[in-house]
Write a structure and sequence with these properties.
There is one protein chain. By secondary structure, this protein is α/β, with parallel strands linked by helices. The chain has 3 domains: about 220 residues, Rossmann fold (3-Layer(aba) Sandwich); about 80 residues, Tyrosyl-Transfer RNA Synthetase; about 80 residues, Structural Genomics Hypothetical 15.5 Kd Protein In mrcA-pckA Intergenic Region, Chain A (Roll). The chain is about 45% helix and about 15% strand. It is built from 19 helices and 15 strands. Strands 1-6-5-2-3-4 form a 6-stranded mixed β-sheet, sandwiched between helices. Strands 9-15-14-11-12 form a 5-stranded mixed β-sheet. Strands 7-8 form a two-stranded antiparallel ribbon. α13 packs antiparallel against α14, α15 packs antiparallel against α16 and α18 crosses α19. The chain starts with 5 loop residues before the first helix and ends with a strand. About 40% of the residues are buried. The mean pLDDT is about 90.
């Protein structure tokens, strides 16, 4: 099929489309004029991470082509928790935690999508607005009648949980019904006709499409993006140090930039298309670079993604800090993550291996000792060979001590 709408054309070319309920009809609908499409984000933490960036970029692309993005935050569904492809049930959160998490992910959404005025301005809405008002009897009678338990049991996301020891609670089993109800409610309130999400949401999305058809007599659409892994099979957004968060208080801008700079060679072209606003032609040109030149493409990827998520000035500062560290060998401070230690601690002296643990560059004293013995530990760009060396405030340089684990992991120690 040759798409008629500019959104479907570019979404296909960039690799965003994995499944769709009726792509031909959706394409025809979008070619005729602006539509409203949504993606849901449950507040399971106080920040989204890189694993959610595909969905945010999909909404960004929708907005670019003149359509209205709706970011649905799940203040209501968070009280149940999405069981899709999880090994066990999520811990239930209290309302205070949910509210804090909502504030964090709304901030992430504002970082990436355009708000303000205009027909295609972003709408952010919390499904607690309607889910908390639902009567259980009314839900069973008006909505539950449209759901087949047999069909729900056939969804891969449900089957994988039923095959495990813990099984699936009745509370979690209701999640699909509530997510489907969200689509119907958004269709009524905002005329939303498209639900998008990761491929793990396919069963829930199809249920929502069917519910709107049955209850409203309207054709609506579902579309999923692929769940990403790196070429080496690692889950997208996960590193040995943990998740790569979009909130810079949880992941510094420098660490965020460095994560993208460390992209595997085989992933550069794919990630440029998915996570930047660069033209497809420019993405393909950069991906075709060979040898040492591919590093320039990685730097471009890192800077462009960071600019979208944190702003151009922060991205360029992180790039400069990395250049100073790796290419010029300076004790760069701008953009590096920091921790603060009590002044008294350094005045008394700290064993060097312990300093690396306090700086969270390693997880244990034993790991720190192995790092030093292996020649991978440096302080202020000088290699450390004595794992028993005592570090005092004499090591402060311009008010900081720079710790390095290998060539790519760095942190600054400040005293207060």
């Amino acid at each position: 099929m040759t798409p008629k709408s500019s959104f479907i054309q570019e979404a296909q070319a960039r690799g965003f489309i994995f499944q769709a309920t009726d792509l031909k009809s959706l394409d025809e609908r979008m070619a005729k004029g602006s539509i409203s499409g949504y993606i849901g984000f449950d507040p399971t933490a106080d920040s989204l991470h890189v694993g959610s960036l595909v969905q945010l970029m999909l909404l960004r692309l929708l907005q670019k082509h003149g359509h209205q993005p709706v970011a649905l935050v799940g203040g209501g569904t968070a009280q149940i928790g999405d069981p899709s492809f999880r090994e066990e049930a999520r811990s239930l959160m209290n309302q205070g935690t949910i509210d804090r998490n909502l504030d964090g992910i709304v901030q992430n959404i504002h970082q990436i999508l355009q708000f303000g005025s205009g027909e295609n301005k972003t709408i952010t809405v919390d499904n607690a607005e309607w889910l908390k008002k639902l009567s259980y009897i009314d839900l069973l009678r008006d909505v539950g009648i449209h759901f087949s338990v047999n069909r729900m049991l056939s969804f891969d996301s449900v089957k994988t949980r039923l095959e495990r020891e813990q099984g699936l609670s009745f509370l979690e089993f209701n999640y699909s019904i509530l997510q489907s109800y969200d689509f119907r409610e958004l269709n009524r309130r905002y005329g939303t006709v498209l639900q998008m999400g990761g491929s793990d949401q396919w069963g829930n999305i199809v249920s929502g499409v069917e519910l709107v058809r049955r209850m409203e007599g309207k054709q609506v659409f579902g579309l999923t993006a692929p769940l990403l892994t790196t070429s080496s099979g690692a889950k997208m957004g996960k590193t040995a140090k943990g998740a790569i968060w979009l909130n810079k208080e949880k992941c510094s801008v420098f660490d965020f930039w460095q994560f993208w700079r460390n992209t595997e060679d085989q992933d550069v072209g794919r990630f440029l298309k998915l996570f930047t606003d660069l033209s497809i032609q420019e993405c393909e040109r950069l991906a075709a670079l060979q040898g040492a030149e591919i590093n320039e493409a990685k730097k471009m990827l890192a800077t462009e993604v960071t600019a979208i998520c944190h702003g151009r000035s922060e991205a360029e500062a992180a790039q400069k800090a990395a250049r100073d560290i790796f290419e010029q060998g300076k004790l760069a401070q701008d953009g590096l993550p920091e921790i603060v230690l009590p002044t008294e601690m350094l005045q008394q002296g700290v064993p060097v291996f312990r300093l690396f643990v306090l700086g969270k560059l390693v997880n244990s004293n034993a790991e720190a000792r192995r790092l030093i013995r292996g020649g991978g530990a440096r302080i202020n760009d000088e290699k450390i060979s004595d794992e028993g060396q005592i570090i005092t405030d004499d090591a402060l340089c311009d008010g900081v001590i720079k710790l390095s684990s290998g060539r790519k992991n760095h942190i600054l120690i400040r005293c207060r």
